[in-house]
Amino acid sequence: MLNKDLKLSAEIFSAEIKQKPTRDGYGEGLVKAGENNKNVVALCADLTESTRAEAFSKKFPERFFQVGVAEQNLATIAAGLGVTGKIPFISSYATFSPGRNWEQIRTTIAYNDSNVKVAGHHAGISVGPDGATHQAVEDIATMRVMANMRVIVPCDMIEGRKATLAAAKIVGPFYLRFGREKSPVFTTDATPFMVGRAETLWTTKKPEVAIIGCGSLVYNALLAAKALADEDIDVLVINSHTIKPLDEKTIVAAAKKCGAVVTVEEHQVMGGLGGAVAEVLAKHAPTPMEFIGMQDTFGQSGKPSELYETYGMGVKDIIAAVKRVIVRKV
Amino acid sequence: MQSLNTSKLRSLELKANEIRQDVIESLLLAGSGHSAGSLGMADIFTAFYFHILNHNPKRPQWADRDRLVLSNGHICPVQYATMAHAGYFPREELKTLRKINSRIQGHPHRTALPGLETTSGPLGSGLSQAIGIALAAQLDKKKYYTYCLTSDGEQQEGNTWEAVMFAGKRRLSNLISVMDRNYIQIDGDTEEVMALEPLRAKYEAFNWHVLEVDGHNLAAFIGAVNEARAVYEKPTLIIAHTIPGKGVGFMENDYRWHGMPPNQDQAKIALSELQAQHQSLTGGRS
To answer: Which listed residue, A3, A95, B77, B234, has the most CB atoms within 10 A of its CB?
Structure first.
């Protein structure tokens, strides 16, 4: 059942649940961060409206820098601002930033310890019809392997706002990942959010499997948990919004309690959340796992719902993975 | 900037010579590193740290300091030697170049050594970081200048031109870039590897003010920086023509010294040449 302590939306399983893209949370959080601190600046590479930097650019025009279609410049100008007392947020599509400017982010932001927040938008396959060129499914991995980089994947619009505000407050490089499509807003302003702490959204007395997810697919994990409960299969659903630093304590405890894990992410199954969880469990609590995500393939054009179905990220796929991993339990 | 008289000029020339000697010695001990560009830029580094920059080696984080960003980080031996001479850290520490647990890494790392403004090495990313620093100065209403030292080879990087385009568009007159135009890169002559000319016309087309100067003529270089500071509404590029390996005859204009350190024998020859130059500068008085 839902963890009542987390004050999730009362409409969570209603067909009427509010739908908003996580990128809206970035836009709101950025404006709020700008109000809180005059050192917050924003940069964008010709995608101001779609990465939701527009509201900030209108409210604080002198603190907004349009760099044009130049993602390497985006990262490195921000690096210079970041070592001079500013708190730069840079936004583009994740395939371009941190896709195209990975080395600049590595050298001039992460290694250089510049206080830059990299916001990768339109991440995952749910960006849809634009096709595989615009579907970032490697960015969690490429950011996670970088020393001195924190990685956060918000599960809904409200968490997107909280993550943006948290990144503004905590000194040091961040990668924040956002989606284009509307997705259910199932947390509330009152839901706790702390960088580095995973939240168990769905708890049961004797869970058989821990479903660990990030991003808007956490909602599919909750729908799967609910459906599994009807079949008397008890699971946990953990929202691991922070991929790095990973909440090892919560994840290891859940794996030990359940004895089986399913990870859920809109990303390649190598190197992302699933990879991070597997690394921790291999070390502390070897556990059978199933991985929901892109299975070493590129996406294609299509509606988000079609893509989720085609690439095995739907509710029924999560249910099937839970059943598969139960069979593998020792 | 202070005024430049004959005796000051002579003292800068001597300082540049001493810095070249330290470059040779630190590269010899390191056993790897970049000789040619380091020697070629010794005069310009001397001009900056001993005349142009408004800085305080005892307060490297001073908020109003001029910023000097080294984009082509591989010539850091000359930056380290100059900083040591200027008082940022003991000259003795130059012996730790490229050694384990040293503050003077093989390529400059900002958080390792106070006084470094950026981390660099991968080429083409320094100018845009300097832009970020110059933008911060505007936001904070600070008067400091941001200087960026670049190589000619890194003009082949796309990131460089993204930065050139941005600075021109924003009319960043508090940004002055100095290009070490020595015509060499690892694989050979810049114009054969990937032709860069006409560099002046290219920068001018991107709305920069461009000056060209002999990078070994300290008075001329300092004069060019003065002119650059007087230019409003545009960033300035100073194309400094330098001789790679300057001061060491067998290294001069030989691209093979781009990424090579001297061995014991070569260092001995190099140091005796530099010492002879030092003597002639002092008129035999050492």
So the answer is: B77
